[in-house]
Amino acid sequence: MVHQSNSETETRAIAARFAGELKPGVVLLLSGDLGAGKTAFTKGLAEGLGVDPGEVTSPTFTLVHEYRGGRLPLVHVDLYRLEKIDLDELGMDADLADQGVLAIEWSDRLVRLPVGAVSVTIVASGEDSRTITIVTPHSRLKASAPFS
C-alpha cells in the first residue's frame, strides 16, 4: 500500500489508522533517510494503539523505549547508532514485544530480519511531503479488509 503525506500530522494519521489493523506480535521494519518521518510514524502508531504519542521520542541514545497502557504495548527500537546487531542482543522485553507491536527504526542494521515482518518505507518526495509504502503479510493484520 502506498500513501502520500503532506505533513507530519498526516504521517501520524496514516500510522494511527494502520495501527488499528495490527495484532500482537507484529514487527514493523521502518526505513527512510534521516528526518524522513520514522519517529513521526511511530508517534502515530502509539496514538492508534491508545498510547500517549507525546511520550514517544527517538530512542537513539537508549536504543529501546517501551510504551504500555494502550490496546497493545508498543516497543520502539532505534538502531541508528549501531552498525549491525541481532534482535536478541538488544536486551528488550521479548515477551512484551510478542504481546504488542515492535517498531524498529533503521532496520537495515539488523543482521537477520524477522520472518513475517511488515516493511514501512518513508521517502521524502518534497519539502513536507512523504511517500509511505507499507508491505504487509496479511496474516499480521486483525481484519481481512485491506488498510486504506
| Element pattern in H and E | EHEHEEHEEE
> Can you summarize the main beta sheet?
7 strands, mixed
- Count of helices? 3
Strand order within the widest beta sheet: 1-7-6-2-5-4-3
Portion of residues within helices: 10-25%
Helix and strand composition category: alpha/beta
Assess the beta-strand content as a share of residues. 25-35%
Question: Which keywords apply here?
Answer:
20% helix, disordered C terminus, Rossmann fold, 3 helices, alpha/beta, 148 residues
Describe, in plain words, how this protein is organized in 3D.
The protein has 148 residues and is an alpha/beta fold. It has a single domain, classed as 3-Layer(aba) Sandwich (Rossmann fold), CATH 3.40.50.300. It is built from 3 helices and 7 strands; from the N terminus they run E-H-E-H-E-E-H-E-E-E. The chain has a 7-stranded mixed β-sheet with strand order 1-7-6-2-5-4-3. Helix 1 packs across helix 2. The longest helix has 12 residues, at 8-19. It is globular.
